[in-house]
Structures are given as structure tokens and as C-alpha cells.
């Protein structure tokens, strides 16, 4: 398991002195990955991957199956070594380290798993205490830390219960408590919500966000679910075939995705259109054709009546074919698909220029002969 500094006085029970004070966490990048590549025979799992994770940040890494996410997280925790490149954890390159030296770095990294990985023959209390026992922490200090963590994850009443008697969400809470036991500087989450039902997923994500905010914990979250990234991450990396195809702040990526894969993962709004439109888009304009555009707005802009203002300013009447609003980190992101009847090329240009100055992203989907 794996560990950290938590520089807050209320994280420690006042009546039990800590014999092993957590080491301080430096400012700046907790993780720095530089040009790493990894091949398995003829298969390229990672291809020149570079990114950083700053202290206190939650980074979501998303991609379809085979994108390289699992290999990447195994490289971050030292279970795989890249063929090329550097992986710095707290400023130390872990790639050339011996197993003994690597174990010391792993002592600063917590890990939670998709299938919990709890020991069925041990109680909740014993599972959480295990990394502390391995680290040689004394009994009184170990007990104090375990109860502190069980209270943090809401399982104080389950200390003597065995995993078989727990729900999936409770098991994952035990896994989180265990991962935090020795104060990690970095928490790695490998599909930590994939085995849970939607309601439980929300509670686990709320817990991770609360831990991040209260303890300043840095989190790297591997997932294939864009909804998880939207709910919790500050930044997102989108991977495909071992490469990073897009990276940025979550609000920006959701409001204006640049890569085609990102747009598909977020969900193409054209899929909500009638089939007569989806299957009838043409690239070129002809007399009597209707222009169809998709526009996306985020933050304060999403609250503005952009279409109403355009109707007033340009004297045009857009037809709304689809509209959706979602919230990313408590900020609204709105998407509209609109059509303009009998749109001439000058009108299309005029509308495009007007909207481009007012929305986060504007995309011409094409021209159609009929709207319904």
C-alpha cells in the first residue's frame, strides 16, 4: 500500500503521539512523466507519453479499452518499467530504481482498485491496519490511525465486520481507508468505481473529492467513464492507442473538445437528432438547403440567451433541434444543435461570425434538404 504527508492537526488524534511523523510534501509537481514508451512485443502500449500532476490536483485519465491506461498506472506504481523515458514521483525518477529503493517510493503512493483487493479473512479494522503493521507502526499509534480513517470514510461501526458482509461501496471505502493509512502523497485509482452501481459511484466520488479538499491529496484517476471525470477531476487526459490525444482542464474539454475521440467519449449530440438529419448531411450548400450548426457554451456564457440575442441582432430565426445542459465541477456546459432555414452562403457566414465570438465552440454539421 502507499503513503503521504497530511499537514493538518485534526488529522491526528491529540492523545496519541505519532512515532513516525509523515514526511512533508514539496510544492509543485508530484508526478512528472517525460516521454515514456512501453512495448509488449510488437504491441505499443505507451508511445512518448508526457504529462505532470501538480500537488492537490485530481487528474482523470480516460480512454477506451486498449488505450494504454492500465499500463500507464502500472508504470506509475512501479509494477512495469517503461522502455524509455522518466517517471518522477516527488522529484525522484523511479525507472532505474532497485526493488528495495522502489519500495520506499511506494511508501508515498496509495492505490485503490476496481475489485477492492481486501483480505477476506481479516476484519475491516485489520485490513486498514495492514500497511501500518507492515511498516512497523506501533500498536497504539496504529489503532489510532485506523479509527481516524474509519471515521473519515464513514465506517466506524464496521470495524469488526468481515468483507463478505459489506456492500460494494463499503468495500471500496475500506480500500480507500487502507490506501490512506500511512499518509500517501499520491493516490492512484484504477477504475475504482467500475464495479459499483450509479448511486454508490456518486458517494465514492464525493468521498474522494472531500478527501482531496480536506487533506490536499493528489489523485490520479484511471477510468473509461467520462461521467466520473466530469464529476471529480480538475484536468483530464484522453488516451488512444498509447498516445495522449487531448489534455486540458475538464471544463474546457467538455465545452470545446478538440479531438474526435474526446467528442465521441463525451457523447456526440448528433446522435440525438432524427435519422433523416443524421443520415442526410451534405458538405456543400445549394438553393433551399438548411444549415445545421452545433454550439457549446460554458460557465457564465451558458447562462446567456445567445440565441435570443442573435434573433434580435441578425433578424434570423434558428430552429432548435436538440439542447442539453450538464454540470462540470458545478459549472454549466450547454450544447445546442440549431438549424437555419434556406440559409444562403452569406447568411451562413454572417451567423457563423456572430456565434463564433460568443460561444465556446462552434461546429458546422452540414446542410440538409429537410428538417423533419
Summarize the structure.
With 372 residues, the chain is of the alpha/beta class.
Sequence-ordered SSE layout with sheet pairings:
Layout: E1 29-40, E2 43-54, E3 58-63, H1 69-76, E4 84-89, E5 92-93, H2 99-106, E6 109-112, H3 124-134, H4 139-152, H5 168-180, E7 186-190, H6 198-215, E8 218-223, H7 226-232, E9 235-240, E10 243-249, H8 250-255, H9 260-266, H10 275-278, E11 290-298, H11 306-314, E12 319-328, E13 331-340, H12 345-356, E14 361-368
Parallel strand pairs: 3-8, 3-9, 6-7, 7-8
Antiparallel strand pairs: 1-2, 1-4, 4-5, 9-10, 11-13, 11-14, 12-13
Helix pairs in contact: 3-4, 3-5, 4-5, 5-6
What portion of residues belong to β-strands?
A: 25-35%
Number of helices: 12
Parts with pLDDT < 50 across at least 5 consecutive residues: 1-19
What is the number of E strands?
A: 14
Q: Which structural class do you get from the secondary structure elements?
A: alpha/beta
Q: What's the main sheet like? A: 6 strands, mixed
Q: Using the alpha-carbon principal axes, give the shape.
A: elongated
Order of helices and strands: EEEHEEHEHHHEHEHEEHHHEHEEHE
Portion in helices: 25-40%
**Cα-based radius of gyration, to the nearest Å:** 25 Å
Biggest sheet, spatial arrangement of strands: 6-7-8-3-9-10
Mean of all residue-level pLDDT scores:
84
State the separation between the terminal residues, measured CA to CA.
Answer: 58 Å
